[in-house]
Amino acid sequence: AAAPAPAARPADPAAAPGEGEPAGQDWSSWPTYNAATLGFRNYWYPVEWARRVGRKPMPITLLGEQIVLVREGDKVRALHDRCPHRGVPLSLGRREFDGTISCPYHGWTFDTESGKLCAVITDGPESPICGKVSVRTYPIEERLGLVWVYVGDGAPPPVERDIPSELLENPFVMGGRTDIRDGNWRFAAENGFDEGHAKYLHNTALWRLFKVMPAWNKTRVVESEKDGWLIRVQDEVHWEADFPGLGTWTNKRWWKRMPLPDAPGKAADINPVIKEMDLPGFVSIRLPGLLRVAYPHFIHYEWYVPVDADHVRYVQIMVRFEQGLKASVFKAKYVSFIRWLFHGQFTGQDAWMVDVMDAPPEKLYRPDLSVTAWRRLIERSGLKVQREKTGLER
Ligand code: FES
User: What are the angstrom distances between the C-alpha of 80 and each of 15, 87, 113, 391?
Assistant: First the structure.
């Protein structure tokens, strides 16, 4: 006998991605986000370790803009990486005189601070075009050992606006990595805040030999007044999960120290700075694309900095709010295994997914509530989308 046809199932409101939201075939519900292939203007972005930027010109791409970084003593300068004469990249140029960069083609020479054409080697010191042409310069700062570049219009806000306040208010030690990964920056940001992937994708990460993750249910996303973080809150922890592929969680002792509201033993043995932050959940995201994962003794931050439509600069740091011996022990642990296990293989799994995923179209499920909350934050934040060639002299 033929198998009975399955009964039609009523629509399950619990399966909707967020209140009043469609099931998400495309991104038309989030038009600003949909248009933000190259990210958002008017933010400071970390782009490179300050120690790596020297006198030799270093080309970078940020929000689709070609930029050249050069160091002048204790200052790093950033200029649009295009000679206005015939469009040759200035990053291929030479450093003939202090404080300048000379285009390799005809020797147009620009002041690296103002961007003004200050000498033309092939037209003599009195060349009449001197002072009449300039290349765009970018506001630049150094914080946390990183170079920060502002892509925006008008006078920039202090760079501190775009750095988590706990990193400005407390001494800490840190280790970190930066690299450029394949995929659009939005996929990287969504992956970081995505609840479901942590339970499954990372099951095979070696990091989990040390920090096993339980499974959660009943996720909420709340907005923190401090620094505009969206915080993912897990209201129910499944300490024992017997689905195939999930396993059971043996490392309860460690997880009991997590700053989860329902974790037994919460607040015991937590770093005082992290305890003071009083986070309702341990994963948070904020504009323009920064994830924070707070463990009991350290915090991992990762910035998703748009390079171009298909690449993201992934800046990750692990911070421990300690000084003295504890800081030294952390530093040793970071270089000996955290850097390889967490900032290597674990986040390499994320990079793999960001590279291979392809959406929209998409169909969302209940745990994607975290992703849609992030998109909603962007829609209501009045952001200026970076368009191709925005802000470039042409
Ligand atoms: Fe740069 Fe001619 S293209 S000097």
Answer: 47, 11, 12, 10
